[in-house]
Amino acid sequence: MSLDTTHSLALDDIQKILAVGYGEFDHACYFLISELYNVDRARAYFRAITEGMIDAASNKTRAGAEERKATIAFSFNGLQTLLDCPEDDLHRFDTAFREGMSGQHNLRRARILGDTNPGSTRKGWDWGRNNEIQILLILYARTEADSQNLDKTEVPKIEKFAKAVKVEYGYLGEDGKEHFGFRDGIAQPSVEGLRIPRVPESIKPGEFILGYANESGAIDDIPGIPGDDTWGKNGSYLVFRKLEQDVKTFEGLFKGKENPELLKAKMVGRWQDGSPLTLAPEGNERRLEQSNDFNYHKFDQHGYRCPIGAHIRRANPRDSLLKGTRDKSPAAALSNANSHRIIRRGRLYQKGTGEAAKKGLLFVCFNASIEDQFEFIQRQWVNNKKFSKLTNEVDPLIGAGGKFTIQAPYAPKQVDIKELVTTKAGAYFFLPGLCALKQLLKP
Length: 443
Hints:
This protein is α+β, with helices and mostly antiparallel strands and 443 residues long. The protein has two domains: 248 residues, no CATH class; 139 residues, no CATH class. Strands 5, 6, 7, 8 and 11 form a five-stranded antiparallel β-sheet that branches. Strand 9 and strand 10 form a beta hairpin. Helix 2 runs antiparallel to helix 13 and helix 5 crosses helix 12. It is globular, with a radius of gyration of 21 Å.
């Protein structure tokens, strides 16, 4: 394969989820497969799945019945098992991917991700706590019944080659909102060559897809497999986290408080319908509900509109972090922030009904480097107690709790925050291109 330093993407070789996701399907069934005991049967099963898989070049908004609506990714453990090769033969894969998200001796990564927080300790995870997951298969459906039917039809097939399979059900929230009531998925990066036209400034595709130039003009290592040094081109690293949301505790934070809707917005950085505080400080504005075209330095440098530690500002500081770069300009800060972005493809989950229901997010994101993107965001922005000019604070929405500062010209105030989101499972995967997928699964 030749390497392309431009943004001319091989869309017909990229799994569709990277480009636009599967938003036309409200439901999805996630199969987390481990303990492969018959590799030949596994390959045969996934070869059938790959027949007719939709690629990123597809312009169809409603895929036909003959097309396979699927996403397939592999952990490092899974690749080793399918390839029957030693670890050293796969050394060019991302270090974080090779080590895995968890495992008995991986405490450093647990601290980076916040998995040492009281509610997120890996001992109680539903799956993934020992890096045991080998393959992630996502199949999409239009209805909840269809999704559950996929479970019934596919698990017996999977059990013919794997001893263990966990199943999660995900769905798209009404009006695009997550369980805390906020519109989600707005701040996706605009990527050169992909159809995500959110803002005028686009990010180089090499930040998300291997084999292309990134923001610095470099091309990240393309991982190979025995016999093919560029096997990983048109692939991406996939992060999967099961995040449980404590809706009752979240709502309890605002009982008896003055102007609770504003306080909620200050924590998140947007009003519940999506309008960013930086552009709409007085209240939600319908014309701004999907707006992502703004920065902080010129209009909100001191956090008087959107607090410096608000969730969306920590997750993407845009042009506000002037320190840490040679050029102390907002443009340099924005360029630096853009080198740590991720593409998100999460869905909601809910188990049970009423107050006892377990609710949360099946978080999925893509990046060319787990360490420099997803883990960087967690370490330097979300869980950094000294983020920007703050002291002893973490992300108020997905952090471990504590204090949250609301900046104001004369009288900044602090509010107490509890841990609202806990990690219940997780793993790192590699999402190969379609040609690489076929090569991996050949008899």
